[in-house]
Automatic annotation (TrEMBL):
Signal peptide: none annotated. Coiled coil: none annotated. ATP binds at R102, K142, E177, K178, G179, V180, E185, H208, N262, E263. The lineage of its organism: Bacteria, Pseudomonadati, Pseudomonadota, Gammaproteobacteria, Cellvibrionales. It catalyses: 5-amino-1-(5-phospho-beta-D-ribosyl)imidazole + hydrogencarbonate + ATP = 5-carboxyamino-1-(5-phospho-D-ribosyl)imidazole + ADP + phosphate + 2 H(+). It comes from Microbulbifer hydrolyticus. Residues 106-292 form the ATP-grasp domain. This is N5-carboxyaminoimidazole ribonucleotide synthase. One of its GO terms (molecular function) is 5-(carboxyamino)imidazole ribonucleotide synthase activity.
Length: 369
């Protein structure tokens, strides 16, 4: 049998294993620190990486996988580099190093000749103010590291709101970005093999609530072929420049001036969960295929699909739908507990289902608590 090791034990690891096990692939999981392993219980061997553990022993305890991947952007890149002594690690550790740090990430995107919103580095409050002055309002201030689900970032649109964050920022590294006047947010998921084959999915349109993804619709409504092909060109350019292997997700803003890249995630992505029911091959199966050098699966979507996150709710909705995924995590407010996928023949028909599902999940406000 072929064995894949995954660093991380959350729902992304869970879905990779669930989706690739029918291909006859076995999995083992490396838990970092005191990481909870509930999501992957029963899906393979679980090994705990304790501080200072011998890497070769960890690798062997994982059953000596032929390739190792990771499910979390914030994975310890040093650990991945150490594991590389025993088998290929895909995506490569340097892809994690770039995307873990917003300044390095934006610099790498720019170096590949691709567009991002104007940005400036800043290392303290005074430098943040100077950068905001130069870029103008509204601006986004994001810590270079440890930002996800809109955490560790602030939007400022006036001198008052800038003054208000004075005590929240510290002497860390930040990027200050010019606020983008976008009409929509879309994301592109693609997979690349080590020998350079690339597949991409239809763009998804993403709606966030309080910084967290709530709804993804694919193919993105109102997207024309040109936007799709521009996004594909951007993602392929990045993947080829980085000799990237595996699934890479690219979040973009649609503006009157065209597409801007917001950020990248070197892994399967929440905005690609719709592929579990909506595409011929899921992003999870294609990630595993890519890192094993197998032929990539068809990414075609026969019907419009929508994925709705279950944030802080874990009750299976009763409305007719095309699948509910519950990750088996313990309930906490706002936590990603699972997701629902809806399919229909037209975007219009889907829109009505989305509303009804949001109401069933979240009540009359149709928004998470
Ligand atoms: P994720 O959970 O997707 O990893 P994150 O915490 O890494 O999110 P971003 O994706 O950078 O953060 O930003 C979160 C959201 O904030 C974006 O999806 C977008 O809605 C808004 N946003 C971020 N930067 C900008 C910008 N420069 N202009 C306008 N809106 C922005
Ligand atoms: Mg992010
Ligand atoms: Mg984002």
């Amino acid at each position: 049998v072929r064995r894949v090791g995954i660093v991380g034990c959350g729902q992304l690891a869970q879905m990779m294993a669930q989706e690739a096990r029918p291909l006859g692939i076995e999995f083992s999981f490396l838990a970092e620190g005191d990481e909870n392993t509930a999501c992957v219980d029963g899906l393979g061997t679980i090994v705990h990486a304790t501080e200072g553990a011998d890497i070769e022993q960890l690798y062997k305890a994982m059953g000596s996988p032929e390739v190792i991947t990771a499910e979390r952007e914030g994975v310890d890149a040093g650990l991945l580099r150490a594991l590389e002594a025993f088998c290929p690690v895909y995506p490569r550790p340097d892809a994690f190093e770039k995307t873990q740090h917003r300044l390095r990430e934006k610099t790498a995107i720019t170096a590949a000749g691709l567009p991002v919103s104007p940005f400036l580095p800043a290392n303290n409050y005074d430098e943040i103010c100077a950068a905001v002055k130069q870029l103008g309002y509204p601006a986004f201030i994001k810590s270079c590291e440890h930002g996800y689900d809109g955490k560790n970032q602030w939007r400022v649109d006036s001198d008052e709101s800038l003054a208000a964050i004075r005590d929240e920022v510290s002497e860390l590294e930040y990027v200050v970005e010019k606020g983008v006047n976008f009409s929509r947010e879309v994301s592109l998921i693609g997979a690349r093999t080590a020998d350079g084959k690339v597949v991409t999915y239809p763009l998804a349109e993403n709606d966030h609530y309080r910084g967290t993804l709530l709804v993804s619709t694919a193919p993105a409504p109102h997207v024309d072929e040109k936007l799709q092909s521009t996004a594909e060109e951007y993602l392929s350019t990045l993947m080829n420049a980085w000799d990237y292997v595996g699934v890479l997700a690219m979040e973009c803003f649609v503006t009157d001036e065209g597409l801007l890249i917001n950020e990248l995630a070197p892994r399967v992505h929440n905005s690609g969960h719709w592929t579990l029911a909506g595409a011929e091959t899921s992003q999870f199966a294609n990630h595993v295929r890519a890192i094993l050098g197998m032929e990539l699966g068809d990414t075609h979507a026969a019907r419009p699909a929508v994925m709705i996150n279950m944030l802080g709710v874990d009750k299976k909705p009763s409305l007719q739908n095309d699948g509910v995924w519950l990750y088996g995590k313990s309930l906490r407010p706002g936590r990603k507990m699972g997701h629902v996928i809806l399919l229909d023949d037209t975007q219009e028909a889907l829109a009505a289902h989305i509303d009804a599902m949001l109401e069933e999940l979240y009540g009359p406000s149709k928004r998470p608590a």
